[in-house]
Structures are given as C-alpha cells and as structure tokens.
Amino acid sequence: MREYKKLFKFYRKTLFDYYENSFFTSIYRVIAILIFPLFKTLNPNYITIFSLILGLLALFFSLPPYQLDLGVIVIFFLFSYFLDFTDGIVARYQKKTSFNGRFMDGLFDILVGGILNIIFLSHILKLDNYFHFYFYLTILILHPMQHLVMDRYSALARWINEINNNKKLKPYFRNDFLGKYTKLLYDLQHLCIWIIFFGIFEYKIIIEIFFVFSLLASILSLSIHIYLSNKNFSSSSNQKDNSEK
Q1: Domain span holding position 62
Q2: CB-CB contact of 24 with 191 (8 Å)
Q3: What is the pTM of this model?
Q4: Considering its fold, how many domains does the chain have in total?
Q5: Which CATH number belongs to the domain containing residue 42 in this structure?
Q6: pLDDT single digits (tens) 74-121
Q7: How far apart are CA 44 and CA 92, in angstroms?
C-alpha cells in the first residue's frame, strides 16, 4: 500500500490533466500502477519484450486455424499497452532507467502498433473486397514514418543544442504546439479499440473510423515536425559538418 501511495503521489499532478497526458494515457498509467507489484522485481526490459510478445501472439491467434474473434484479439493489445507503461514505472522504481530501455520501448511501440494495423487491415479487407486497399496501405506506411520523423527531429534538436551552446531547442513539441489535438486523436483511436473490445458496434465501422483517426494523427504529426524543422533548424548552422574535411 505504501508503494501505491508513493506512485500515485508521484503521478497525481499529471494524471487526467489533459495538458500533460491524454485520457487513455492516464487510464493505462493507473492500471500500470495497480499491476506494478506483480512486476516490480523483473528486469524492465523483460517487461518491454513481453509487451511485444503479446502483440505477436495477437497476430498468431488472428491467423488460421485459430482466427479468434477481433474482440478477443484486442485484449492482447490492451495488456500490451498496460505493460508499456509498467516497464517505465518498474525501471524508475529499480533506478534502472536507461537509453537502451527507452530505445527498445519506442521500437516495440511501433512494432505493436504496426501489428494492430495489419490485423485490422486483414479483418476489414475480408469484408471490403479491397475497395479501399490503397487508403489503408497509405496509413500502414505513414504510421512508422511519423515515428521515424519524430525521432529524427528529436535527435537533431539535441545535436543542435550540443554543438550550439546558445540553442535550447525542445526535442519534442509535446504540449506546446497543437498538443491537445494530438492527444485527442490518440484518445479517439484508443476509444475505437475499447469499443471493439466491448463489441458495441459493428467491427468494420469502428475499424474504418480508427483508420481515419490514425491517418489524421500521422498527417498532423508529420506536418508539425516538418514545420518545426523548417522553423527551428533553418537558422542553425551545422558547425561540426562545416569544420570537417
């Protein structure tokens, strides 16, 4: 109980504060805090790996001969999201936070998200007869691309700060630039996943709505980072490359 109190005290200022976190980020973090005692002695990287394994199991059980109902399949992803927040809490608790852990966490997030998109695409194409195939294919391509651009922007911002001491660029726009819109699109996508879990509406309709929100989120993220890159990087001289022969 003492550990629960400490964790909730640490996160209470940001939980359900929409300026800091999206609604579902707060939900997943609360669940991660609640299940934290089950994992607190494990290596945080093992928890991260297990979150990826859950995504792979979801893909496995979505294929013949199993082909589990989509409402069951998304349970694997929900538990993967819970663990995605648990590994960070465990790492901080054990004082084992590392850049390797952050790298694995970000990479596996992309892989799990990609697997979910593939499963949704496979499901809807069975019903849609490939009518919107290129629309869905575009979304599959943009999903990892937005993370690549975001990470590239973050790396270059830190590099500029390192070689130009007078620069203090923020690696992430987070809450400072259209943050509420990115959080809203994140929440809407995860709301679709929970609706599929509860089986409230027809899967096809919810998946189509999910993909629309996913497309908007990717376009927004790419647009923001391209705009900020042009705004923040254009006036920064790459002194290191200029001095190399």
Answers
A1: 2-234
A2: yes
A3: 0.89
A4: 1
A5: 1.20.120.1760
A6: 999 999 999 999 999 999 888 888 888 888 998 999 999 999 999 998
A7: 9
